[in-house]
UniProtKB/TrEMBL annotation:
It is found in: Cell inner membrane. It comes from Cohaesibacter marisflavi. InterPro entries: DctQ, TRAP_DctQ. The lineage of its organism: Bacteria, Pseudomonadati, Pseudomonadota, Alphaproteobacteria, Hyphomicrobiales. Keywords: Cell inner membrane, Cell membrane, Membrane, Transmembrane, Transmembrane helix, Transport. This is TRAP transporter small permease protein. One of its GO terms (cellular component) is plasma membrane.
Length: 167
């Protein structure tokens, strides 16, 4: 049962990781498009798009936080890999578990403190008049993705005896 549940979780998180990566790619494509439009409007038409810089800034933040979870899933986050050179599998497992627990605690703090903050901003952005909970939500959703994918990455780690990621 646990193995089936684990495999289901890994398949679901792999699909979630792919979906967030594709969404981030679409956001980055939109960023490039809006940036070209803004440059063209400013230098060719001499009529700058006032909201473009703000939209680009928020879009970049959303794209980065969306792929943060996938980064953890694939073990591509910045880390100190000094523990990897230690030959003891037991120490590697302890270090991996400590890293996971630290990540989950940080993610839980950000999500727990971030959700009430989102509900109470009442602010709007200066140019686009966008409710500020929308850009701020990227942090909460990003850390939620980090927690979900860090667990999946931990389960798939070769040091734990797993060789193949879920498809």
């Amino acid at each position: 049962m646990a193995s089936s549940l684990t495999q289901s979780y890994l398949r679901w998180t792999a699909k979630l990781s792919n979906a967030t990566e594709y969404l981030a790619v679409a956001i980055f494509a939109g960023i490039v498009l809006v940036n070209f439009m803004a440059v063209g409007a400013r230098y060719v038409l001499a009529d700058p798009i006032g909201w473009s810089e703000e939209a680009l800034r928020y879009a970049i933040v959303w794209a980065v936080y969306l792929v943060a979870g996938a980064t953890f899933r694939h073990g591509e986050q910045m880390m100190i890999d000094l523990i990897v050179i230690i030959p003891s599998d037991m120490i590697k497992r302890i270090a991996a578990l400590l890293s996971l627990l630290t990540t989950l605690v940080l993610a839980a703090i950000v999500v727990a403190l971030g959700i009430p903050f989102l509900m109470d901003t009442g602010q709007v952005s200066p140019s686009m008049r966008l409710p500020m909970w929308i850009p701020y939500a990227s942090v909460v959703i990003g850390y939620l993705m980090i927690a979900i994918q860090a667990i999946a990455g931990y389960i798939e780690q070769p040091v734990l005896g797993n060789k193949e990621p879920a498809k």
